[in-house]
Every structure is written in structure tokens, then in C-alpha cells.
Amino acid sequence: MSSPLVIPPTYAPIPSAIHPSHAAIDKQTAAWADQFDLGSPQWRSRLATQDIGAFASRILPEGQEDVVAVLSDFVIWLFAVDDGYCEEGDLADKPYELAAVLHRLLRVAQNPHTPMLAGDPLAEGLRDLTLRVSRCGTALQVGRWVDTLREYFFAVVWEAEQRAANRVPTLNDYALMRLYDGATSVVQPFLEMGHGYELQPHERDSPALRAAAEMTSFITTWDNDIYSHHKESRGTGYYLNSVRVLMHEYDLSPEAALTMAVAQRDRVMCLFLSLRAKLEDQGSPQMRQYLRSLAAFIRATQDWSITSLRYTTPDDPADLPHAFTDRPTDDSTEPLDIASISWWWDLVPASRTA
Ligand code: 3E9
Ligand code: MG
Ligand code: MG
Ligand code: MG
Ligand code: MG
User: Fold this and answer.
1) Could you tell me if residue 303 is inside a domain?
2) Which three-class secondary structure state does DSSP give residue 338?
3) 253 C-alpha to ligand 1 centroid (Å)
4) Count of domains in the chain?
5) Which of 137, 187, 276, 298 is a plausible cystine mate for 193, CB 3.0–4.6 Å?
6) What is the ipTM of this complex?
7) What is the pLDDT of residues 132-183, one digit of tens each?
């Protein structure tokens, strides 16, 4: 086994926070996964040690407790899909079959009373989640949630095709796919539900707020790639991760690719802070709360990732940091050379950045 990459402390300008009921929520999520028989007993006992409830509790530190609890159960459900189907399961490299399975699940989310997939653990878990999301959210938010689930499913089918071809995608394709295949956009409707408001569609779908949400997805998934690189690269099989994509794109060593991935997430983080400041001056109180929640989601991923046994993997320890830094490694206000996302930089005039 090669020695793990040393992950440096990453830039964390957003304060840390966690919902006070995190321990109870974490315990209840493990029980929920048992109740619905998700994954295998071995998978569940592994996931029960990974602090999934604490992760959800960091995403919504001041959210309504019933919504944090649904989010927590949904996150473990997502990991059952992501680990069980998309990465480690039989369908991981079968995009057509995966698409069929995910379409059937989507039907259950659209209408939980559809007489399909009776007794299927993922479908029964999803039925329960859908009924609870319908109680916490407005019709518009439930509709958004189903749409974002479809977005995630569509991206993991794309990912499965990369795996089937044993191909490392281009940086531009990977960055675009990663906005969706980390299931980050599916979490976003919970940010509204957790605080009991509905974002006005003209604000949510404005290019600026959409960009802020996309930047959140970029930062959280790049962070995931940085912190999960050890977990993902230590096997012998195919893995998809921004460090690997950068090595391939620019012919870099793992160390140089890691440095570049950190610089990219730092640059997007600086842009996120500038855009957030601009939007806070202009937006409604709901938009300001939404921006606070996006920021909490970013910090949640950082705090959870450096501590969860999912990534520290004590049997073959990852070299993760124990703290963060208050300085970015790259604070350039130039757009990243990634065509699918470079438009984000058009939204913040140069006089407002850095
Ligand atoms: C997952 O990608 C990236 C997430 C951990 C970022 C935050 C997302 C959520 C809270 C929603 C749950 C997400 C899932 C289950 C995809 P990846 O590389 O598949 O995660 P891994 O933990 O295996 O590194
Ligand atoms: Mg636990
Ligand atoms: Mg995945
Ligand atoms: Mg994974
Ligand atoms: Mg990962």
C-alpha cells in the first residue's frame, strides 16, 4: 500500500455549528436504516459509526428538529444508493440498468402510493421519506425535491458510463457532473424546509443565487474528493475523484494534483464569500437565510469529513488534518479555467472580489 497523501488544513472562513440534538438524531438514523433494512447488516454497522446524524445536524444547526431528522435519514438513504448501487454494487458500471432502477425509485418519490417495488428496502425507505418531506415542505418544495433527485440520478448514470468505459473524464466534464453526482443539490430543498420558508422562484432561479448554490456544490464535493481520496484510491479498482482527474488532465503527480484541487476550492470559496456579501445587500430575508444555510453546508462537510470514520479509515489511516486554516492558498479573482463554471465569475464585479 502506498503511503497516503498528506492532506493540509483547508481554508475555513465559515464558523462551525451543530444542532444540539445531534446525538439523538444520529442514533435514530441508525435505527431508521435498520427498520428499513437498508444495505447489508455489515454496511449498516459500518455506517452507524460514521456520524451521519452529526453531518445533517451541522448542515442545519438551527433548523427545525423534525426536518434535521428527515435530512439525516435521507443522507443515509443516499449513501445506501451511492455506495450500494453507484459505486460498490453490481450496477456501478451498468448505466442502462442503473437508469431503469433509478427511474422506478423516482416513481415512488413522485407518488409514494404507487403500487411498485413493495418490500424493496430502498423503495420502502424512500416512501417513508417522501411522506415525511410532504409534511415538512410545501408542494413546491416537494416538487423541487423530486426534481433534484432526478438531477442526481441522471448524473450518477453519467458517472456509471465513465466507470463502464474505465475512462477518466476531462476536468470540464467532471466539474459539471460533480455539481450533481454528490447529491448536494438534493439537500438544498431541506435548507428552506428546515427554517419553514419558501424562497421566491425569482430569487431561487436567479443566476446569482443559482451560482451560489452551485459554488456550494463545487466546494463540498471538491472537499469530499480531497478528504475521501484515501478511501477511494486505496483499492485496486476504478475510482473517480478530482485529484485523479487533475493528475490525468495536466499530467501531475498526486501531490501536485492535490495542491491544485485545494487551490481551486479556495478560489471558489473566495468567490462565494464575495457573491454572498453582494447578495446579502440586495436579497430578501429568506434569501439571506438561504445564504447562511449554504455556508453552513460548506462548513458542515469540512467538519464532518475530517472526523468521520468514513474518511479517517483507522484500519489504514488517512493522513487528514485535525484543524483548518483562516488563509486561502489561492485568492486570485481570475476565473478557473473550467468552461462549465467560469460564468460564476461574471456575477461579481472585480471591485467586489477579494
Ligand atoms: C459524496 O460523494 C459527496 C457528499 C459527501 C457531499 C455532501 C452530500 C450530502 C450531504 C448528500 C449525501 C451524498 C451522497 C450520499 C452522495 P462521494 O464521493 O460518492 O462520497 P464518499 O463519501 O463516498 O466519498
Ligand atoms: Mg454514530
Ligand atoms: Mg458517489
Ligand atoms: Mg462514494
Ligand atoms: Mg468521495
Assistant:
1) yes
2) coil
3) 25
4) 1
5) 137
6) 0.90
7) 999 999 999 999 999 999 999 999 999 999 999 999 999 999 999 999 999 9
